[in-house]
């Protein structure tokens, strides 16, 4: 084996995180936890004058692994962040107006004779069966009835066949992690970065200067400065891959409201004429917003459309955000790693914003450098993060193109769109024989793709031929038994709000 010719450097001793918010404090918490006991000083610079975006309030199940690694108590987290549980995302009006389906954190039925159950359901459908694929999914039926419980530890039980996430106030989550990180020695510096100094030979960032004249030097800088990308773009000119040709939504308007109706354990995304509207129920309020494309609707009409479709009084004035979907060409350049919005932005249709922060942190810890900053490790980080973003991009785009809608200019735009080859190949494999091409790197597993494609009426022409090994009567009997098991399990599942109160996770949830 050939020895590496890269000169190794000395251990990292100083880390500077530029920017707070969810990305900054998740990074600070993870680094302080992993590097605990080592002679590494971690500083985080943020300014109370600069607001955070705060759009992402819904998460994916992977956030539980992040919190568990930090040793965070779930009830404590939920009380601190006004959190509710989340079994999936409900989509309304995406395939056709009037359609609805839930993308669950779980599969549809068990594997039968080595074949995923949805293939057997396709055969049942061909035989004239009219039951929904959703009827075989415990998390879908539980979400529809506003019920929740933690997964069973009995792997043979229907109640073990799902995952869950949280719906929480992202600003409260950042504050929670700030307390955690500061307790482990992270130093917070109040201030605005006004100047960046680069090393004349290496081009690395040597130090940043704050508005009051203080200078902060570090070996490794993590850019969590949001869309501005103060270091990764402002200082190092990483470049940006603009994905508006595939995901043209470029603005959002957000507003909190009071709670209305039952406390659902799911996020809702309702398709509109020029974008989509989110609804995220927390313990103390509901987060609402309208993501849209300014080419197809004015800011005023987008705000009016949101306000007219709220189900409770507003608690603040609507707040507008602007963005460009895409990613940095280099997430890691020189001695700067961009995490969160500094690295890229993909609309929060599938609650991926916080997860992409988590991906950035996880990959940084896996490839944590020394002061030599091995270009092979930097290249591998950029390769992995590029794939993470591209896989999410394709999954989001699927929602827009797997549609029968042509009732507005935006929907007609998507029906005529030329797809990325990676997504076109995925759809072709599905429509031919219901095969979901697996990824080495990719957030969403096959059941997620099945949920969206089936939910939006993208039906395959065939199915796995192995389902023919079971005769029709036996297949119907097996299917009925699966549905009955789901029905019984959901009937024994507590009401979502009651479960939060009983699990000592309630903060301000009214009795």
Write the layout of secondary structure elements.
Blueprint: E1 14-18, H1 21-34, E2 41-46, H2 62-70, H3 74-81, E3 84-86, E4 88-92, E5 100-104, H4 117-126, H5 138-144, E6 165-167, H6 170-183, E7 187-190, E8 193-198, E9 205-210, E10 215-217, E11 220-223, E12 240-242, E13 251-257, E14 267-271, E15 275-281, E16 286-292, H7 299-308, E17 319-322, E18 326-328, E19 332-333, E20 336-338, E21 344-345, H8 353-366, H9 375-401, H10 409-415, H11 421-433, H12 446-455, H13 472-491, H14 496-502
Parallel strand pairs: 1-2, 1-11, 2-7, 4-14, 11-20
Antiparallel strand pairs: 3-6, 4-5, 8-9, 9-10, 12-18, 13-16, 13-17, 14-15, 15-16, 18-21, 19-20
Would you identify the regions where 5 or more consecutive residues have pLDDT less than 50? 1-5
CATH superfamily name of the domain at 14-51 and 169-241 and 326-390? FAD/NAD(P)-binding domain
- Broad CATH class of the domain at 14-51 and 169-241 and 326-390: Alpha Beta
Distance between the termini: 66 Å
Number of strands: 21
Q: What fold name stands as the CATH topology of the domain at 14-51 and 169-241 and 326-390?
A: FAD/NAD(P)-binding domain
Adjacency order of strands in the biggest sheet: 5-4-14-15-16-13-17
- Estimated share of beta-strand residues: 15-25%
Content-based structural category: alpha+beta
- How would you characterize the largest beta sheet? 7 strands, mixed
- Average pLDDT, rounded to a whole number, is 94
What's the number of helices?
Answer: 14
CATH architecture term of the domain at 14-51 and 169-241 and 326-390: 3-Layer(bba) Sandwich
Please estimate the helix content: 25-40%
The geometry reads as globular
What would you report as the Rg, rounded to the nearest angstrom? 24 Å
């Amino acid at each position: 084996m050939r020895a590496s010719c890269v000169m190794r450097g000395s251990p990292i001793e100083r880390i500077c995180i530029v920017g707070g918010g969810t990305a900054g404090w998740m990074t600070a918490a993870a680094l302080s936890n992993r590097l605990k006991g080592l002679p590494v000083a971690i500083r985080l610079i943020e300014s109370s004058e600069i607001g955070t975006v705060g759009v992402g309030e819904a998460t994916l199940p992977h956030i539980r692994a992040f919190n568990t690694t930090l040793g965070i108590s779930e009830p404590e987290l939920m009380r601190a962040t006004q959190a509710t549980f989340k079994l999936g995302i409900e989509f309304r009006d995406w395939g056709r107006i009037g359609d609805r389906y839930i993308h669950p954190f779980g599969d549809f039925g068990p594997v039968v004779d080595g074949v995923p159950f949805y293939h057997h359901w396709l055969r049942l459908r061909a035989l004239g069966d009219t039951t929904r694929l959703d009827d075989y999914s415990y998390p879908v039926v539980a979400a529809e009835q506003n019920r929740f419980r933690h997964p069973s530890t009995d792997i043979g039980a229907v109640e073990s066949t799902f995952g869950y996430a949280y719906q929480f106030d992202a600003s409260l989550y950042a504050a929670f992690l700030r307390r955690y990180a500061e307790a482990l020695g992270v130093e917070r510096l109040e201030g605005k970065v006004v100047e960046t100094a680069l090393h004349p030979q290496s081009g690395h960032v040597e130090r940043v200067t704050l508005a009051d004249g203080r200078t902060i030097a570090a070996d490794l800088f993590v850019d969590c400065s949001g869309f501005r990308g103060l270091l990764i773009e402002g200082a190092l000119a990483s470049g940006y891959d603009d994905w508006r040709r595939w995901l043209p939504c470029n603005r959002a308007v957000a507003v909190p409201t009071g709670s209305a109706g039952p406390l659902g354990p799911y996020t809702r995304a309702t398709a509109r004429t020029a974008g989509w509207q989110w609804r995220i129920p927390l313990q103390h309020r509901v987060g609402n917003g309208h993501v849209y494309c300014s080419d197809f609707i004015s800011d005023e009409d987008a705000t009016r459309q949101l306000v007219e479709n709220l189900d409770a009084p507003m608690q603040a004035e609507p707040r507008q955000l602007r963005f460009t979907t895409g990613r940095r060409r280099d997430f890691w350049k020189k001695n700067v790693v961009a995490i969160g919005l500094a690295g890229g932005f993909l609309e929060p249709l599938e609650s991926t914003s916080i997860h992409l922060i988590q991906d950035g942190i996880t990959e940084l810890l896996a490839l944590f450098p020394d002061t030599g900053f091995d270009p092979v490790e930097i290249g591998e980080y950029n390769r992995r993060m590029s794939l993470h973003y591209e896989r999410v991009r394709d999954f989001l785009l699927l929602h827009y193109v797997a549609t029968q809608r042509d009732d507005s200019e935006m929907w007609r735009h998507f029906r005529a769109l030329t797809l990325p080859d990676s997504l076109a190949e995925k759809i072709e494999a599905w429509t031919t024989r219901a095969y979901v091409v697996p990824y080495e790197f990719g957030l969403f597993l096959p059941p997620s793709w099945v949920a969206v494609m089936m939910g939006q009426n993208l039906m395959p022409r065939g199915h796995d031929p192995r389902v023919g090994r079971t005769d029709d009567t036996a297949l119907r009997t097996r299917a009925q038994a699966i549905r009955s098991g789901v029905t019984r399990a959901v009937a024994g599942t507590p009401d979502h709000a009651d479960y939060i109160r009983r699990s000592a996770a309630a903060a301000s949830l009214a009795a």
